[in-house]
Specification:
The chain is α+β, with helices and mostly antiparallel strands. The protein has one domain. Helices cover 18% and strands 46% of the residues. It has 1 helix and 3 strands. A 3-stranded antiparallel beta sheet has the order 1-3-2, covered by helices on one side. The longest helix is centred in the first third of the chain and has 12 residues. The chain starts with a strand and ends in a 14-residue tail after the last strand.
């Protein structure tokens, strides 16, 4: 099955570490990262889509971060 996730977080090293951890676990980048400004907090937010091919059959019970 092919799994898809969209990682989000503040524009800081913790976001980069989450993406790096996903890549180290076999996830692949899908497209370019996104960046947006949150005017309420004054912070920048990042997003990156990732995908992974794995064995099994998809179910709504799957916890994507377990893969």
């Amino acid at each position: 099955m092919k799994l898809y996730r969209y990682l989000t977080g503040p524009d800081d090293s913790s976001f980069c570490k989450r993406v790096s951890k996903a890549l180290s676990a076999g996830w692949n980048l899908h497209g370019s990262p996104t960046l947006t400004h949150n005017p309420e907090s004054g912070s920048m937010m990042c997003g990156q889509a990732v995908w992974k091919e794995t064995e099994g059959t998809y179910s709504d019970d799957i916890t994507l971060s377990d893969y």
